[in-house]
């Protein structure tokens, strides 16, 4: 990873062995500089043991407190229920579904687009629809 090109990598190691990794890629386009794309993988034999939770916690801290990222986006297969549950625990919401998104094991699979907006600190979120006057 090279922070100068907007790529940040986090690696989870146990006994000098890599058991998971997470990448954040910040968008360089001026109107989307507040956005990062997230991708994560945890080794099969380490899933369900807190590796994903630790990686997500570190990524959220990096995005919120160091990179000034307002929005994190990701794509996840619709049948990856443990990952979807993890992302929801960290504030991600499903924004849409891509049908026949990828070809896996002889068949097409769908994927969700999920995103998390950084919580507003100490004030009203003026962009929230709940704070806008009725139209």
From TrEMBL:
<dbReference type="InterPro" id="IPR016181">
    <property type="entry name" value="Acyl_CoA_acyltransferase"/>
</dbReference>
<feature type="domain" description="N-acetyltransferase">
    <location>
        <begin position="1"/>
        <end position="115"/>
    </location>
</feature>
<dbReference type="Pfam" id="PF00583">
    <property type="entry name" value="Acetyltransf_1"/>
</dbReference>
<protein>
    <recommendedName>
        <fullName>N-acetyltransferase domain-containing protein</fullName>
    </recommendedName>
</protein>
<dbReference type="GO" id="GO:0016747">
    <property type="term" value="F:acyltransferase activity, transferring groups other than amino-acyl groups"/>
</dbReference>
<dbReference type="InterPro" id="IPR000182">
    <property type="entry name" value="GNAT_dom"/>
</dbReference>
């Amino acid at each position: 990873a090279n922070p100068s090109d907007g790529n940040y990598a986090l690696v989870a190691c146990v006994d000098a062995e890599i058991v998971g990794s997470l990448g954040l890629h910040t968008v360089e386009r001026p109107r989307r500089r507040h956005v990062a794309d997230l991708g994560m993988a945890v080794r099969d034999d380490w899933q369900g043991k807190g590796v994903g939770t630790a990686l997500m916690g570190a990524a959220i801290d990096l995005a919120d407190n160091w990179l000034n990222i307002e929005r994190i986006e990701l794509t996840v297969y619709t049948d990856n229920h443990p990952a979807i549950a993890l992302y929801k625990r960290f504030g991600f919401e499903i924004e849409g579904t891509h049908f026949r998104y990828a070809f896996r094991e002889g068949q097409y699979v769908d994927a969700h687009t999920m995103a998390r907006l950084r919580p507003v600190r100490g004030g009203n979120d003026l962009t929230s629809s709940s704070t806008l006057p009725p139209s």
